[in-house]
Design brief:
Mean pLDDT: 83
Largest sheet: 7 strands, antiparallel
Helix content: 25-40%
Number of helices: 26
Oligomer: single chain
Radius of gyration: 32 Å
Low-confidence stretches: 307-317, 870-875, 927-931, 934-953, 959-973
Length: 973
Amino acid sequence: MLTNRVFMKKTRKGGIIKVVREHYLRDDIACGIASCGLCMLTETRTSLDRAPQFCSTAVPGPHYLMLDTNIILYQIDFLESDAIKNVIVLSTVLDEVRHRSPVIFKRLRKILGDPGRRFFTFVNEHHRDTYLGKGVGESANDRNDRMIRKAAAWYGKHIKQEDPKNKVRVVMLTDDVENRRKAKEDGLLVSSVADYVGSLSEHPELRDKVFSSEKWQDESKIIFPSHFTTTQIHEGIKKGELLQGSFFASRDNFLEGNVRVESIEEPVLIQGRLNLNRAVDGDVVAIKLLPKSEWKCPSKVVLVDEQAIDDEAVETADPEFEQDEGGDIVPTAAVVGIIKRKWRQYCGILAANLMAQSTRHLFVPSDRNVPRIRIETRQSAQLVSQRIVVAIDYWPRHSKYPIGHFVRALGVIGEKDTENEVILLEHDVPHGSFSAEIQAQLPKLPWTAGPEEYKKRVDLRDITICSVDPPGCTDIDDALHARKLDNGNIEVGVHIADVTHFIKPGTPLDKEAGLRATTVYLVDKRIDMVPDVLSSNLCSLRGGEERLAFSCIWELDSNANILHTKFHKSIIKSKAAMTYQEAQLIIDDPSKTNQTAQSLRLLNQLAKILKRRRIDNGALVLASPEIRFNIDSETHDPIDVVAKKLLDTNSMVEEFMLLANVSVAEKIEREFPECALLRRHPCPPDANFDPLKKAASYQGFEIDTSSGKQLATSLDLAVKKDNPYFNTLLRILTTRCMMQAVYFISGTIQQQEYFHYGLASPIYTHFTSPIRRYADVIVHRLLAACIGADATYPALLDKQASSQLCNNLNYRNRMAQYAGRSSVALHTHLFFRDRTEDEEGYILFVKKNAIQVIIPKYGLEGTIYVAGKNNEKLKKDGPTFVYNEETQTQSCGDVEFHAFDRVVVRLSLDSTNVQHQRLVFELVTPFIEGFSVAALEGGDAAAAAKRKGEEVVEDTGKVAKKSKKEESKKKKK
């Protein structure tokens, strides 16, 4: 049997077509009851017990439960209890749950898959006696409710028809008051969850799991406006009434965020709880621009959500939010719908409810971009001292916070292994061991290339090739050479490990490398993109060992102009693997005259010319606070911290890596103009530079941001003799103004958008680090196809598939950077575990209620609150700080605090709160005797970088690592 729906549709060209939609109905769909004489039940399907046992005073006798959609969405904790069995889930309800909450749907599927739970899916949408069409003017929700009532009535009749003596009944569970009323009118047995659970005398523990659903039905308790439906969003975007983009929450103010929209140059501001409308950092949202009269300026207040836990409190206003006056207004919008959730599992701590008997608590994520999450647990006494993992399930309109559930505990707060695990999970870093299938693919050691492979390659084993890397580096994926030619020109070669020889497209190893996308470097460990046998052995260009390589060779004149470029697969044998310092000593020692020394001097000489030319063309030389830890070889704790020092050899290697990346980008884009994997760095909107311009102007300098060249020139001129760190501060602040550099596919955007702003290069890609970056693996395959060394394959030339790959590469690359910086922050906290230090710092930003400082020695940033409710440590009789909007300064008595002022800051670890383990910053500059302002929260440069999403100085594959020799020396001392 089938039902037909026929309607006429007008085409774009004006024609009329007849559309027939058919819905097939059957009469042989099983009810799911064991041994039902009327149904043909297959043995593989989970069946309901013939005589279910429940102890309920509200429903005497055995019964099955039938659920409506909201029961599953809001009462999933209750349903996950093993006490709840013999439940009928209709296909109507299942489809609606799948559409409304993928997270809840996943949890429901787990229950459905447990044979012991006796949850049965009844396909009512295709059963002849339970299907109902949509009525005229009837909403989808009302039709679904009617379908549920119809199915409940059918089950009651079916059970009696199969066995007139059977006393088993069907109880419809719904918290919808109107649905209950109609069910009772139809003569059905119906109950709310609260009433039903209250009658289960043998399971009183279930009462703690019941969510108070009256809130989402009581209009007086609604906080947020409804989200638009999918249809409304699509229509609104199509008509231009709505915009879409990714939402990024502010780390400085939990009531603020922005959405990046392609059609608008600057990010669109979202301000206030109602306008945020339940968006979580990373969600793809639909927004509606507010009238220009309602546009606002970004807040200058540092605002952290420190509210007390009160499940009954409902606030529709934002009492803590202050609107700034006098700033530059920016496009402002409200979130009206969610297109795609970016929810994942979050790490953090439990803020236990002060009411001892309560099972409802707030979870505080480690990532301040994520809102607090309400969870329910009876283990709060054990969990308050641990880092835990929580997942978001849904966010109802009546709740200030999303509702989630406890997943697992990671370990005791403050323990190093626990905190490392938190870093990896919080930044979504795949860090499990490689599967047995992948391990079986790997070459067996000892391994050598066969003679056939040698014949395919250019033999460069006789050339003086060497590598220059950070100390302790084992994954050496690049090497260099330079030599004078007979015609007076210079041959320079960059040789990169040929990782693609071992990683073939479509293999399990290739898929895993593509998923991981990048190697992640923590202070004391490395999470490899590929197994160690490749990264640290067969693909590592170690000194004195033959290796397969992919070479980029130039012929340059004495002014470093490129005369010829060629690419080929090669066999090399590095003559030496040196550190930056070792290479620098060889260059600086005139007594060294061997071929390695001559090669290094040629490379260094040419690199200086290349760098000068890049800077003259507008490339930026920016800065970020970088430090390196010396680690105790036994305890693995930090024992010393030093600022990273850059030598000429650092720059030498960087210049030739950049040159190779540009040359390869030009080659693959020329051969594959529609599908080359490239990297671009968008030009920042001029508004991004406002904080930089204002801060510099108060110090007497004008920063010209009309072009990269003018910006670079302005930064070079901004020097203060009395503050040698001032120029570095300006460059750090400039870095914060930048956009994120991203991978993209050449055929997806216009050619003028290929430009890399930070490097002032019209085209760029990543080729030089295939051990550490999957993007380089793809570029190697494209280049190999260009020169005929390898064949292409469908996915390599598929623009859509490659664009999706780029999305993952960009995400993983960003998360890897944040994880590395968080690891630095962790080790800084460990370093201060038993010490207090007064260190020189500089003011980066002056806010309305806070001063944000940077400590160059440790690369740390901290917020020192001087006004508002967050400065609980400020003495009641202490001095008053006054913020000047015009000059952006804080005044205390006769002392004014400006951006870039030098201050003294006391650093210590807060031992009063075992949960937070926060680094405390105190302003100890004695501007008023005996007074200091303590920060409630400490941060690091990583946090600020994450806040802005910056990345300017390109990663050439060189990663700073600790020196084992230095560790050993330090330990002996």
